[in-house]
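Before relying on records like the one below, remember that each one covers exactly one chain. Contacts with other chains, cofactors or solvent are not represented anywhere in the record.
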Amino acid sequence: MPQRIRPGEASILPLPATTAIAQEARRTAPAAGAQRSEILPREEARPESLHRAWQAGSPYNQRYQADQAETFSAVVEAVQTFVPADGAEPGLLLRVIVGGQERLIHVAPLRSLREQGTRFNYRDSITVRASPTQVSGQTVYLAQTISRGASVFEFREAQTGRPLWGTPATP
């Protein structure tokens, strides 16, 4: 049975430090038109709560449509960052290959992933459940779950798409 991991649970995975999100994100160039943000040092990335763009009910999170969610297997081609709104903390963006086609997966806020010890790496084989949507004229997939090996990482509630990383919003 797969190990289910939700925000707030201990989920440190024994991965080499050389494949950390921060190192991989700094080495990987963004796609044309993608907004690139450097990963902030831990001290700077820990405001009392996440920016309102990450909060349940935000315009960004309202784009998740549970009835449109798809499940697909993929291979991670790049680990990058994105920003869901001006002033928001960066989130994790996975560039994956599915049937020879590239897809962009918006995963979760980097801070939430750091706190969980969750990492994704170049060439990881994953299974993604995500809802497609349009962001800046480009199709992206908002992740609900990502499975890797025996672990299932949950980022949104299955029926509602409500983010599981939620904390009170800040202005």
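The first strand starts at residue 3 and ends at 5.
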